[in-house]
Specification:
The protein has 1036 residues and is mainly alpha-helical. It has 44 helices and 3 strands. The protein has a 3-stranded antiparallel β-sheet. Helix 1 runs antiparallel to helix 2 and helix 12 packs across helix 16. It is elongated. One of its GO terms (cellular component) is ubiquitin ligase complex. Its EC number is 2.3.2.27.
Length: 1036
C-alpha cells in the first residue's frame, strides 16, 4: 500500500471515548430496531443518529480510531488529525464511512510505535468486526442492517487483506521494537487453536478470533497467501526442531495437518524453498540436510531412537530407561507403551499430511519428488558404515518407513488384485529413484545395463516414462527402498548395539572378577567405571530402538504384509509357485534389486524371534518361496541370501516358534514335501564356497541351521520318505557330496573343539593354583581370562555343531547306509569313525576331563554311544563286507586295543547290549581283515611305482587318466577328491567325474601283476611244504 503521512496521536481536544462510541451505537441500534415507536414518544437521552453516524460509530469502534480531537488522552483510540484535515479539505464529513475505511486502516497501521503491533491489531479488529456483525442482527430496519452488514464485511475484507500483507511483509508498516514477527503471532494463534486438553504443555497464547484463520487462508488466492506461508512454515519447522518423542510435537503436527487441508496453504508448502532444500552446509551431506532443513524433515526427525549428532530433547533413554536393570518389568512395559502411543500419533499424523497432499493434483507431484529426494540423497544408508553427517538419522527413516507402509495399506488389503498394477519396468525406466545401480538378484551391472538397453530398443515406439506408472506402482517401489534404508537398516544397527553391549558386559564382568580376586588398581577402577557408563548408555539405546520397532506389533504386521506382496509379485515374474523352476531365469527377475528379497528374509527372521509377532499371519507364500529359491544358484546368486531362507525356515520349527500352525506349514504343502529336503541337502553342498573371505567359518553357521532343520524333518514320516528317495536317486550325486562335507565338517569341528578343551583345561589349572595366579600382573591375568572366555565360546560352538553332525550320521545311517559303503566313501567314513573313537576311548581320553563339560556342549558318553551306533548301522547294511577292511586299513587311528577299550567303556556307560554285541562282532571282523591285509601286502611285495596311486601311494584297483594333466590315479581316490573340489589336483583345471578316462591297459597290467605275485607266493609255500604244483592247483 502507498505510504501515508504519520498522524498525531491523542491530542488534548475532547472526543468521544470508546465507551461513549459503544453507548451511542447501542442506543441508535435500539432505536432503529423499533420502527413501531410512536413519534410522540419521549425522546431518548441521546439524540437519534443518522445511518451515516451509526456506520461511523461502528467502523471507528472496529478500527479504534478517532477523527475528532479527544477530550482526554486515550492510547487505545488514536486521533488521526491529518486524516481528518484531508477529509475536511475534500468537503467530506468527519465520519468513518465505508469509502474511507481503507484510508483509515492504512493510517491506523502507519502510526509509529503503535500498540499493539500491526498484525495483532488486525487480528483484534477482525474480532471486533465479528462482534459488531452479531450486534446489528437485532436492527429491525432492513435497509440499515444491510448497509451496516455490507460496511462491516468490507472492513473485514480489508482487515484480512492487510493481515496477509503484514504477515508476508512485516516491514510494510512501522513496528515497535521487540515486537514479535507476524508469522510468530500467527503460529501462536494456530498452536492455541490446535491445543488439546491432554497436551502436557500449556497453550502458548490466546486463540484467534473465530473464523479469522479460516478466512485469512481460505478466502484468498494463492499469490496473497504464499508470502504469509513462507515464514510461517519455517517457524512451524523450528517449533519441532530437535524435539524427541517425549516433546511437544503434537500441536505443531495438528497445525500442519490443518494447513495442508487448505489448498492454497498446501500449495505454498510444496512450493516453499525448504520443501526440498538446495542449500549446502559445510561438512553436512545432502541426506542429513533433507532432515534438518526440509519442512517435513523436522517432523520425521521426532523419534525415540537417539541421534547422537543432532540430539533431541527430552532424552528418551534417560527419561524412560535409566537404571533399567533395577526397574520393575511393569515400569518398562509402561514406558514401551507410552513411546509406542506417541510414535503412532506422529506417524498417523504424517500419513494424513502426505495423503492430503497426494490427493491434491496441485501437490501430488511435489510429494513424490520429495520422497524421491529423501531416498536418493540417503542412498549411503545402505552401506555397512553410515556417515551420520552425510545421511539422515535412523529415527527419521523408521518414521518414514512407518508412514510409507500406512500409505500402502489400501492395496496391501487387496494384494492379489493389485499386484498386477506393479510394473517391473518402473525399476529401469522411472526418472525419480535410481534402482539400476543396486545389486541385482542374479545379474551383474553390465548385464542389467545391456538388458535395459535391448528392452528400450525393442520398445522404442512406446517409450515408458514416469507418467505411465500408477501411484500404486510408485508407492510400492518407493516403500521398498525406504524400508531398506529405514527400518531394515535400523534393525541392523540394533543388532550391532546388542553385540557391542554384550561385549562390554563381558569385559565389565571380567574386570570385576579380576578386582574381586585382589587385582585392583587405579587403571582397573577407571576401566570399570568407563565400562559401566558405556553399558548404561548402550542399554538405554537398545531399549529406545526396541520401543519404536520391536514393540510395535502393528508396524511389524504392516511390514510383513508388504513383503508378502513383494514375494507374490516376485514369484509372478517366474511364472508362479511351481517347481521345477524354468531352466533359464527371466531377466525381469534377475535384474530386480537383491535387497527386495534380502529385506523380506531379514524381517521374517526378526519377527520369528519376537513372541506372537507371527501369530495368525499367513506364512504359506514365504514358505513356498524359500523352498523354490534357496537351492537355485541360477536364480539367486548370493549364498548368504539363501542361507537366510534356511534361517527363517528353521525358526518356524514348532519347537522354536511356539506356534501350532507351523507344524502344518511343513507337513501340509506338496511343494514342501517334494522339494524341501532335497533343496536343503543341495544347499548344504553349495554353501561350501560362498565367495567371501570368511567363507570357511560362515559355512559352519549356515550348515548348523540346515542340520537343525533336517533333524526336525527326519522325524516327520513324509519328509523321511522323501529323504530316502532322494538318497537313492542321488546316491552318486548330490547326496554323496552332502555326506562328504558332513564328514569333513565333523572331523574338523571335533578336532578343533577338543583342542580348545585342552586349552581351557590348561587355564583352569593355572587359576586353580591361586598363589601363582595372584602373583601374576593384573594385565596378564586379564589377557588369560579373555583367552579363556574366547576359547569357551569357540569350544561350545564347535562342539555343538560336531554333535549335530554326528547325530545326523547316526539317524541317517540306520535307514540309508548304502552311500556310506561306496568305494569312494567307505574308507573316508571308517577313518572318521576311528578317529572319533581314538579321541573318546583312546589313551588320551583322560586329558579331556574339564570341570564342567556340559558347559561346552561336550558330552563324551553320548558321543561315544552315537559313534558305536553308526559303526553298527553301517555294518548292518554292509552286504559286500567292505566295511571291516576299510576300518582296519586306517593306519592312523585303528588298533585292536582301541576297539577293546571302547567296548569296555560302552558296557560301563550302559549302552544297549545289542549294539555292544554287534560292535564287538565288527571289531572281530576288522581284526581278521587286518590280518588278511597284512598277508596280501606280504604277497605283493615291492609294487612298481606306476601301479601306485600318486595321491595315496596305494595299489590302484581302477586306474583312470585325468584329461588335463594326463596323470593316472585310482578312481575312488579322485572321486573322493572331487566331492570336495571339482578341479584337477595337479594343475587346478576344471574336472568332473564324467571327464575321467579309464586306463584299461594299466588296469589289465595291475591285475596281471597281482595274479603273478599271488602265484609266486603259492609256489613258494608249496616248495616249503613239499607239495607238488599240480596238487596246489587242485587245492585251489
Amino acid at each position: 500500500p502507498p505510504s501515508r503521512q504519520k498522524k498525531k496521536t491523542n491530542p488534548p481536544n475532547p472526543s468521544e471515548s470508546a465507551a461513549e462510541v459503544d453507548a451511542a451505537a447501542t442506543a441508535t441500534a435500539a432505536a432503529a430496531s423499533d420502527p413501531m415507536a410512536s413519534p410522540s414518544a419521549p425522546a431518548p437521552s441521546r439524540p437519534q443518529r443518522s445511518p451515516d453516524e451509526v456506520e461511523d460509530i461502528i467502523l471507528r469502534k472496529i478500527l479504534l480510531v478517532s477523527l475528532a480531537a479527544p477530550s482526554a488522552p486515550n492510547p487505545a483510540v488514536p486521533y488521526l488529525e491529518l486524516t481528518a484535515a484531508e477529509l475536511l479539505s475534500e468537503s467530506r464529513p468527519l465520519l468513518a464511512l465505508r469509502d474511507a475505511a481503507e484510508r483509515l486502516l492504512i493510517d491506523r497501521l502507519s502510526l509509529p510505535d503503535a500498540s499493539p503491533p500491526p498484525f495483532a491489531f488486525l487480528a483484534a479488529a477482525f474480532g471486533r468486526a465479528a462482534d459488531e456483525a452479531r450486534k446489528i442482527s437485532t436492527i429491525r430496519d432492513p435497509a440499515l442492517q444491510a448497509r451496516l452488514r455490507a460496511s462491516i464485511a468490507h472492513v473485514r475484507g480489508l482487515i484480512l487483506s492487510y493481515a496477509r500483507i503484514v504477515a508476508g511483509n512485516p516491514d510494510t508498516f512501522p513496528t515497535p521494537p521487540n515486537a514479535p514477527h507476524p508469522a510468530a503471532e500467527l503460529l501462536v494463534f494456530l498452536l492455541a487453536e490446535a491445543a488439546d486438553p491432554l497436551d502436557s504443555a500449556p497453550s502458548p497464547g490466546a486463540p484467534p478470533p473465530g473464523a479469522f484463520l479460516d478466512e485469512l487462508f481460505g478466502n484468498a488466492d494463492y499469490d496473497a497467501v504464499e508470502p504469509v506461508m513462507g515464514e510461517l512454515y519455517e517457524r512451524l519447522r523450528q517449533s519441532v526442531d530437535k524435539v524427541s518423542a517425549l516433546g511437544d510435537f503434537q500441536r505443531p503436527l495438528r497445525v500442519l495437518k490443518r494447513l495442508v487441508g487448505i489448498p492454497n496453504c498446501a500449495k505454498a508448502l510444496v512450493q516453499h524453498p525448504k520443501w526440498i532444500p538446495k542449500n549446502q552446509i559445510m561438512l553436512i551431506g545432502e541426506g542429513r540436510t533433507m532432515e534438518i532443513c526440509s519442512l517435513l524433515g523436522a517432523f520425521f526427525h521426532v523419534s525415540a531412537i537417539p541421534d547422537r549428532e543432532f540430539a533431541s530433547q527430552p532424552d528418551v533413554g534417560q527419561q524412560c530407561f535409566s537404571d533399567a536393570s533395577t526397574r520393575r518389568p511393569a515400569d518398562l512395559l509402561s514406558s514401551f507403551a507410552a513411546i509406542q502411543n506417541v510414535m503412532n500419533s506422529l506417524q498417523d499424523g504424517l500419513r494424513d499430511v502426505l495423503l492430503v497432499l497426494l490427493k491434491n493434483s496441485d501437490t501430488r507431484e511435489k510429494v513424490l519428488e520429495y520422497l524421491a529426494a529423501v531416498i536418493n540423497t540417503n542412498a549411503g544408508r545402505s552401506g555397512m558404515r553410515v556417515d551420520p553427517l552425510k545421511c539422515a538419522s535412523s529415527g527419521m527413516f523408521v518414521n518414514l518407513s512407518a508412514v510409507m507402509l500406512r500409505l500402502c495399506e489400501p492395496f496391501l488389503d487387496k494384494m492379489e488384485s493389485m499386484k498386477g498394477k506393479i510394473d517391473v519396468k518402473y525399476l529401469f525406466c522411472n526418472k525419480r529413484v535410481d534402482f539400476k545401480s543396486l545389486t541385482a538378484v542374479n545379474a551383474s551391472s553390465e548385464e542389467v545395463s545391456s538388458w535395459i538397453e535391448s528392452w528400450s530398443q525393442d520398445n522404442a515406439s512406446g517409450k515408458a516414462n514416469k507418467e505411465n506408472f500408477s501411484f500404486i506402482c510408485e508407492c510400492f517401489f518407493m516403500t521398498a527402498r525406504v524400508l531398506n534404508l529405514g527400518v531394515m537398516k535400523a534393525v541392523a544397527d540394533l543388532k550391532h548395539i546388542s553385540q557391542e553391549l554384550a561385549r562390554c558386559e563381558d569385559d565389565l564382568e571380567a574386570n570385576k572378577a579380576i578386582r574381586d580376586q585382589g587385582g585392583s588398581s587405579p587403571q582397573l577402577e577407571q576401566d570399570i567405571t568407563r565400562l559401566e557408563k558405556i553399558v548404561a548408555a548402550l542399554s538405554q539405546e537398545q531399549f529406545c530402538y526396541e520401543s519404536q520397532i520391536l514393540r510395535d506389533s502393528a508396524f511389524l504386521q504392516r511390514a510383513l504384509s508388504f513383503y508378502r506382496l513383494m514375494i507374490l509379485w516376485s514369484v509372478d515374474l517366474v511364472g508362479g509357485f511351481k517347481m521345477p523352476l524354468p531352466s533359464e531365469c527371466p531377466m525381469e527377475f534377475s535384474c530386480i534389486p537383491e535387497h527386495f528379497l534380502d529385506d523380506a528374509m531379514d524381517l521374517l527372521a526378526l519377527t520369528s524371534r519376537i513372541p506372537k509377532a507371527l501369530e495368525g499371519f499367513p506364512l504359506d507364500n514365504f514358505l513356498n518361496f524359500n523352498i523354490m529359491f534357496m537351492a537355485s544358484s541360477s536364480y539367486i546368486k548370493n549364498p548368504y541370501l539363501k542361507a537366510k531362507m534356511v534361517e527363517v525356515l528353521k525358526s518356524w520349527m514348532p519347537q522354536r516358534s511356539g506356534l501350532k500352525s507351523t507344524a502344518s506349514l511343513f507337513e501340509g504343502h506338496q511343494l514342501c514335501l517334494d522339494y524341501l529336503v532335497k533343496n536343503l541337502l543341495k544347499l548344504y553342498v553349495d554353501i561350501e564356497f560362498t565367495g567371501s573371505h570368511t567363507q570357511f567359518f560362515d559355512k559352519f553357521n549356515i550348515r548348523h541351521n540346515i542340520a537343525e532343520l533336517l533333524e526336525y524333518l527326519w522325524d516327520v514320516p513324509s519328509h523321511r520318505n522323501a529323504w530316502r528317495q532322494m538318497a537313492k536317486e542321488e546316491e552318486k550325486g548330490v547326496y554323496l557330496n552332502f555326506l562328504n562335507f558332513l564328514i569333513n565338517d565333523s572331523i574338523y569341528l571335533l578336532d578343533e573343539s577338543l583342542k580348545r578343551i585342552l586349552e581351557l583345561k590348561e587355564i583352569e589349572a593355572e587359576m586353580a593354583n591361586t598363589v601363582a595366579w595372584d602373583s601374576r600382573p593384573a594385565q596378564e591375568r586379564e589377557e588369560r581370562l579373555r583367552a579363556f572366555h574366547q576359547s569357551e565360546n569357540i569350544a561350545r560352538f564347535d562342539m555343538k555343531l560336531a554333535n549335530e553332525d554326528v547325530g545326523m550320521l547316526a539317524f541317517t545311517s540306520e535307514q540309508i547306509p548304502a552311500p556310506l559303503l561306496l568305494p569312494e566313501m567307505v574308507e573316508r567314513v571308517a577313518s572318521m569313525l576311528n578317529y572319533f573313537l581314538l579321541q573318546l576311548a583312546g589313551p588320551q581320553r583322560k586329558s579331556l576331563t574339564v570341570k564342567d563339560p556340559e558347559k561346552y556342549e561336550f558330552k563324551p558318553k553320548q558321543l561315544l554311544k552315537q559313534i558305536a551306533t553308526i559303526y553298527v548301522h553301517i555294518a548292518r547294511g554292509d552286504k559286500e563286507a567292505v566295511f571291516p577292511a576299510a576300518i582296519s586299513k586306517d593306519g592312523r587311528s585303528y588298533s585292536e586295543q582301541l576297539f577293546a577299550s571302547a567296548t569296555n567303556i560302552l558296557w560301563k556307560i550302559g549302552v544297549d547290549p545289542q549294539i555292544i554285541q554287534e560292535f564287538m562282532q565288527l571289531a572281530g571282523k576288522a581284526k581278521a581283515a587286518a590280518a588278511e591285509a597284512m598277508d596280501a601286502e606280504a604277497i605283493l611285495g615291492d609294487i612298481p611305482d606306476e601301479f601306485l596311486d600318486p595321491i595315496q601311494y596305494t595299489l590302484m584297483n581302477d586306474p583312470v587318466i585325468l584329461p588335463s594333466s594326463r596323470v593316472t590315479v585310482d578312481r575312488p581316490v579322485i572321486v573322493r577328491h572331487l566331492l570336495s573340489d571339482s578341479t584337477d589336483p595337479f594343475n587346478r583345471s576344471q574336472l568332473t567325474q564324467d571327464m575321467l578316462i579309464p586306463d584299461t591297459d594299466l588296469k589289465l597290467r595291475i591285475e596281471e601283476f597281482v595274479r603273478s605275485q599271488q602265484s609266486r607266493k603259492r609256489r613258494a609255500v608249496d616248495t616249503e611244504t613239499g607239495e607238488p604244483d599240480g596238487a596246489a592247483d587242485m587245492v585251489e
